[in-house]
Amino acid sequence: MKPPVIFQIGWNACINCGACVAVCPQEAGFISDFDTIAVNRPCDIACMVCEDICPVSTITHYIESAFDNSNFGAFSPKFYNHDN
Amino acid sequence: MVTPKYDVVVIGSGPAGATTARIAAEQGLLVLLCDKKQELGAPIQCSGAVSRHGLESAGVVPSDEFVLEAIYGFGVYNGAGESTILDYRQFKPDEYGEGEGRKPLGYVVDRRRFDRCLMTMAERAGVNVMLKTEALGYQPLPYGICEVRLLHFNEEIKVHARVVVGADGLQSQVGKWAGLRTQIKLTELASCLQFVVDKVETSGLLEIVTGHRWAPGGYAWVFPKGHGYAEIGLGVIRTMTAMNARQHLDVFIKQSFFRERFSDSRILEIQGGGVPLAAPLKTQYADNLLLVGDAARHVNPITGGGIHTALSGGVIAGIFLGSIIKAGIEPNKMNLKKYQDLWLEEMGNKMWQLYGVKKHIFATKDIVQRDDMLYRTMSDYFSPYSEYKKI
């Protein structure tokens, strides 16, 4: 069982192609306001196919448990790509 | 407040959605066409190639409003640069060409203007069009209707419809509402990137470059884009390569047998998208709901072309909806299956055949053999004698 992750999009490189959503097995609505996969809530599937399909590799993630809301601002969450 | 009532609500005003809406309205139905965007067709996720036959069979007259360049044939290349040129001006000089009485084989269109034109055609056929309108969900109700929730300029509104049509593209959320498995396998979605460029010569042909070295799992292309511009792009299957599409495109431009031709190119636009090289969706309907276009994976699994198939699917869906709604048939899952049956009969079965061909090619482990099969299949596909030319 993989731990839930939260995705981050490097918006500067995102070309809004929608491929990440097309390949995502999540239920309806797991999308951002910019038609990418959701970035504001955890993904409990953590299959990472959205990262794989991105033509410009601009999707990264961190493991949800690495981000402690009570310490928000006190440290930077650790970022991972799917090879970690 | 009285809930507005429609026969059909179409979500997404791309080629499939706008055509479904227009044809349904022409059948006498009351139709609402929604799109969340403020400018249709943007951001561009498509190369814009469509056959003349595809336009004409959907009642769309080629127009300067959206045509960027006329196309007269194909150039198919293998990985080493050997080519099969399929110029229809040479095959059938009396039929294809620029002179009087002759026609193009197809066109590269500006998707922003093309989608707007299709929406305008729908609006002129009586469709009620709403932009900046996002679909939030649908709920089947008794008596053969459903409720569709929409968000229009931040205001949530509800409408009733007999059928909601999901034409919301590859990223279809509408299909997911009904529990349809619309997501595409990573092994069957080509990750695509293209540059619109200046200073690359073209000659009225769609040029397709096969070969694992340049585009593993897909192919690269050079298409004329009008006004002296061209588009250079490629699609790759990410399970077949460690590099992303951008890295492959960089290699293709700098290292391929076209590198001299591309050496002075200047990038004017960057576009990308996912192109399904997949089978059509096995179930394209649910209670009060059906899918068209990319949402139903009405995309040619060999070429990735989707405009022609979207237009044709829209015509089929529009006529079908007219027939069942006017006849008072309840649009439940069982009765909407007929839409998919009609679609399969008219074009879907051919797409399944093509999917079989594609699957066979990419199941071949030996790269040299696979490259050769893809090159020969592409060359055959675009030949005037191809059994598949209709889609």
Protein model, in words:
The complex is a heterodimer of chains A (84) and B (391). Chain A is mostly loops. Chain A is 11% helix and 12% strand. Chain A is built from two helices and two strands. The radius of gyration of chain A is 12 Å and the shape is globular. In chain B, strand 5 (73-77) and strand 6 form a beta hairpin. Chain B has 391 residues and is of the alpha/beta class. Chain B has two domains: 5-42 and 111-182 and 282-363, FAD/NAD(P)-binding domain, CATH 3.50.50.60; 67-109 and 185-277, 2-Layer Sandwich (D-Amino Acid Oxidase, Chain A, domain 2), CATH 3.30.9.10. Chain A binds chain B through residues 15-19, 21-25, 27-29, 31, 35, 49, 52-57, and chain B through 43, 45, 137, 169-171, 173, 176-177, 183-186, 189, 191-193, 238-239, 244-246, 270-274, 276.
**What coarse outline of chain B follows from CA principal-axis ratios?**
globular
Query: Quick one: overall form of chain A?
Result: globular
Helices of chain A, by number, come to 2
Q: What number of structural domains do the residues of chain A give?
A: 1
H/E element string of chain B? Answer: EHEEHEEEHEHEEEEHEEEEHHEEEHHH
Q: Termini distance of chain B? A: 46 Å
Percent of sequence in beta strands of chain A: 5-15%
Q: What characteristics describe this protein?
A:
A: little secondary structure, Alpha-Beta Plaits, 2 helices, B: alpha/beta, FAD/NAD(P)-binding domain, D-Amino Acid Oxidase, Chain A, domain 2, 2 domains, eight-stranded mixed sheet, seven-stranded mixed sheet, 31% helix
Offer a concise description of the structure:
The complex is a heterodimer of chains A (84) and B (391). Chain A is largely without helices or strands.
